[in-house]
Amino acid sequence: MRCRANPDAYFAEGVKPAGARALCSGCGYLRACREFALARPGLVGVWGGTTWGERGRMRRAAVVERGPPAGGVKAGVSLVRVGFGDRESR
Known about the structure:
- The chain has five helices and no strands.
- It has helices at residues 2-5, 7-10, 17-24, 30-38, 52-66.
- The chain starts with a helix and ends in a 24-residue tail after the last helix.
């Protein structure tokens, strides 16, 4: 995991989406990391190849498409497939 070797790159202010994807490309933990971050809206920085803003859009898109889950957006909903694809396969 490159994020452990250089954490400052992942939590710098203003990381662009393309930079986030580049930082995480090829990581075997990409999907798990993204799911972890999607379930925790307060996390900042790059997680699972996404920026904080991208994750917010993914959460909102999931709510619009499926409706809010019974326990709120954090209630175990997998948001990876909602319009943003699985970047592991690219």
